[in-house]
Amino acid sequence: MAHKKTLNWIPPGHETQYKNWIKKLEKSKRFRHAREQNKKNGSPTFEEWWERIGPSSYRLKAYMDFRAFHEKQKHDFTHLFYLKGFNEGCFRFFGINCCECCGEIIEDEQNPTAYEMFCEFEDEELKKLKQQTVH
Ligand SMILES: [Zn+2]
Q: How far is the CA of 101 from the centre of ligand 1 (A)?
């Protein structure tokens, strides 16, 4: 499936935090062993998995904040809630269907208008970013 270009929703400090976390994990024999096993089996390593699916968990969280605001609801989940869901094979949250390969939002059946607005906002921001890099 073709995926649309999206904003990077990962907060600035988080990427560094994640890299430090991996560095710490590298010291663990179990982690290194698991990686070797994954490589042998041809399955993605933890880092590969995270790179593919991690950004989607942040975007989904950002979108849920956005939707909840418009619905005057509360939304307290962090990206970890969605990441954990993906890890457990759950790709549908609150009426939102996500891609099973990368967790990207496919559609929001519960509130399609909110998702349309979110994508419009995102496209505008992407346009602005593009203009900034051109000049
Ligand atoms: Zn996908």
A: 4
User: How many H helices and E strands in the chain?
Assistant: 5, 3
At 58-95, the pLDDT tens digits run 999 999 999 999 999 999 999 999 999 999 999 999 99
Ligand 1 mean position to 135 CA, how many Å?
Answer: 32
- For the chain, residues with pLDDT lower than 70 are 1-2, 134-135
Q: What's the CA gap between 52 and 81, in Å, rounded?
A: 17
The label of the residue with tokens 């950004």 reads 55
Backbone angles phi, psi at 103, to 5 degrees: 80, 5
For the entire predicted model, the pTM comes to 0.88
Distance 52 CA to ligand 1 centre (A): 8
What residues have CB less than 8 Å from 131, skipping those under 6 apart? Answer: none
Q: Phi, psi at residue 106, to the nearest 5°?
A: -95, -50
Cβ contacts of residue 31 below 8 Å, gap of 6+?
A: 25, 46
